[in-house]
Write a structure and sequence with these properties.
Layout (H helix, E strand, L loop, with lengths): L1 E5 H5 L10 H19 L3 E5 L13 E4 L7 H12 L6 E4 L3 H9 L3 E3 L1 H9 L2
Parallel strand pairs: 1-2, 1-4, 2-3, 4-5
Length: 124
């Protein structure tokens, strides 16, 4: 199962003050995803709305960005990734965004709610 994570949706699922240090929250998400992915052998792609400065990199998680940080740009990138896959039924998209969930389900992917996934990766 390949996992594609709607980054800001997962970050925003827990009101822990992430908005005070947005980049720090983004880097923290990637770190938790690295631990989870490495522990379980999960292939993970995390999608942000736009590039970060300095860049957030990972050797265990594919970090992707929408070409431009605009409304729904990360959603569009996630849908593009699902539609480009020859096996969309083997992809789980992590989001609680109902519009994105409908779009990726229509493309054949499975959806897991962000808050529940956040609880799982927070334990790693």
């Amino acid at each position: 199962m390949r996992w594609i994570v709607d980054a800001m949706n997962v970050i925003g699922s827990k009101p822990d003050g992430w908005w005070k240090d947005r980049r720090g929250a983004m880097a923290g998400l990637v770190e938790r995803l690295e631990r989870w992915a490495s522990a379980g052998g999960h292939p993970v792609t995390v999608v942000f709305e736009g590039p970060t400065t300095p860049p957030i990199e990972s050797s265990a998680v594919e970090v992707r960005h929408a070409p431009r940080a605009t409304t729904n740009s990360a959603d569009d990138e996630i849908v593009r990734l699902v539609e480009a896959s020859p096996w969309p039924g083997e992809i789980t998209v992590v989001t609680s965004d109902s519009g994105l969930a409908a779009r990726v389900r229509a493309a054949g992917a499975v959806v897991q709610p962000a808050a529940g996934f956040r609880r799982v990766i927070d334990s790693f």
